[in-house]
Write a sequence for this structure.
């Protein structure tokens, strides 16, 4: 089976690396300025998942006319971080755990917003041969090493009496993880939608043993997504950074008010079926149990501790700091960071502060 492995966090420190040309995704943006106003180009990446597809809405609907969004799909998040480090990419949407690694390795990338918690889209699935978690000892399990899936698996294993060191983590991206499960190469794996359904439908006897909709996972807000920006964008073009965040949250607002049209735009941008998009973010613009809870600016700012009030689903104001602590502790367990840093070292609050000041 052809396997595309993650570059790994050490690649981020390389002085030179091969740059994979990523074709920009175009979405029929007519442009409200009619070509008269000069737009500032901002390069954004995401990997193929509906939770990140709001960038396509922002571009299609020209929601922030001052910006020209150059959107690329890059399936390996570490490749995106590499490109951000070298000044070839300005921002990316990815899972929310990378900040402590970036600080530890002096990577010029910062988290700027938590954008949504998983509310059922993530599951740990066991192969038919595994009847009890203890049977995973010595077996291969599929995760993205250096990603939330590894922490999710590690916590679940320990909650079920299995030391994470007693399993062999197999480092694969999601489509390859499905193939590894179906072929029997791995005994378990962490999957998000629509890949989890593909495993359960394609492998008779496979079963999900935990879901991110459970109270334990919701309380931690562990499983979620975030927006990252390069330090060069943050420091050299702060107005563009603010406008980029505005573009994303304006797209979320559009989607909440026009979910059918928004889902079609996302599906087209990702080359997904609309149904697969709905299985992740829902069909009505509301919090979707079984998928994710898409945060608007107000909800995200509460989670980041920049606005008063509580975020949805029983989370607490400023919970990003608890999230930072939890992921930092696990990265130290896995040996990916040497010591815990303070949240301010890896989180840039200024773009959201500036955006909120205009509301």
């Amino acid at each position: 089976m052809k396997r595309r492995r993650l570059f790994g966090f050490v690649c981020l420190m390389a002085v030179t690396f091969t740059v994979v040309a990523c074709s920009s995704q175009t979405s029929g943006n007519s442009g409200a300025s009619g070509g008269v106003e000069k737009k500032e180009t901002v390069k954004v990446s995401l990997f193929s998942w509906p939770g990140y597809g709001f960038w396509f809405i922002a571009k299609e609907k020209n929601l922030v006319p001052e910006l020209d969004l150059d959107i690329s799909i890059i399936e390996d998040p570490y490749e995106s971080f590499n490109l951000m480090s070298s000044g070839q990419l300005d921002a990316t949407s990815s899972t929310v755990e990378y900040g402590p690694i970036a600080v530890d390795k002096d990577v010029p990338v910062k988290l700027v917003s938590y954008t949504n918690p998983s509310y059922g889209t993530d599951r740990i699935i066991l192969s038919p041969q595994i009847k009890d978690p203890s049977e995973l000892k010595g077996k291969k399990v599929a995760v993205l090493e250096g990603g939330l899936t590894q922490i999710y698996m590690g916590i679940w294993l320990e909650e079920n009496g299995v030391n994470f060191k007693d399993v062999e983590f197999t480092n694969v991206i999601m489509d390859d993880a499905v193939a590894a499960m179906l072929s029997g190469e791995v005994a378990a794996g962490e999957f998000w939608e629509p890949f989890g359904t593909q495993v359960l439908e394609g492998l008779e006897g496979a079963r999900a043993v935990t879901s991110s909709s459970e109270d334990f996972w919701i309380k931690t807000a562990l499983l979620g997504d975030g927006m990252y920006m390069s330090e060069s964008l943050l420091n050299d073009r702060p107005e563009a950074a603010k406008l980029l965040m505005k573009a994303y949250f304006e797209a979320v607002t559009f989607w909440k008010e026009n979910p059918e049209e928004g889902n079609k735009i996302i599906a087209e941008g990702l080359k997904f079926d609309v149904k697969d998009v709905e299985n992740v973010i829902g069909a009505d613009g509301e919090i979707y149990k079984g998928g994710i809870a898409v945060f608007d600016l107000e909800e995200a700012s509460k989670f980041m501790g920049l606005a008063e009030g509580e975020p949805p689903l029983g989370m607490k104001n400023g919970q990003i700091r608890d999230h930072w602590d939890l992921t930092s502790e696990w990265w130290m367990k896995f040996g990916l960071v040497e010591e815990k840093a303070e949240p301010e070292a890896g989180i840039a609050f200024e773009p959201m502060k500036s955006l909120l000041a205009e509301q």
Q: What stands out?
A: DSSP finds 14 helices and twelve strands in the chain.
